[in-house]
Amino acid sequence: FEGGFGVVKVGAKDPVTAQTIFPLASCSKNFTSALAASLVVQSKMGWDEPVQKHLPWFALSDELASRNCSLRDLFSHRTGVGPNDLLWYRSADRVEDLVKRAKFLSLEKPFRVAFQYQSTMYGAGGLVCEAAGKQAWQDAVKKQLLDPLDMKNTYTMPPREGLATGHGINSLGLPRPVDSYAFVNPDPAGSIH
User: What is the spatial distance between Cα 112 and Cα 168, in angstroms, rounded to a whole number?
Assistant: First the structure.
């Protein structure tokens, strides 16, 4: 049942096949959640343990939220930190550096009161997985998820070959190629391809 439709790039003849690689973008968060669940099952961490147990430097702009924020809060998008996409979008900074900047962001909603989609806090969840599992996020995802599932064409960073070109719509409403999002570092919130 594997196959593909269309071409890898508008105007080119290379077809999309079952082996063509596409960015998963924020669907990468599902892999990070699955990794976290495996570490919870292994009793290496708990959903409701404070993030600071694994990342002592973790801080939000509110002291109560900083002390009590758990993995469950990070993955439920209920830290009070709003999207703040400019903090991370197309940043060449390491996830740890982005998470450390979160303490300078005012909470847009009270802690644990509202759902606010937040990629940087998901990155913090990936860092908790690294600390608890004593292995880099990308290595742990490969070892605990990709390898056992025989997902040989899935990567934690964009591969050099076999990657489909992204497309946008031009002023005439027609598809046009756009530059790929260039990941410099693995990102638990969005770098799986």
Answer: 36
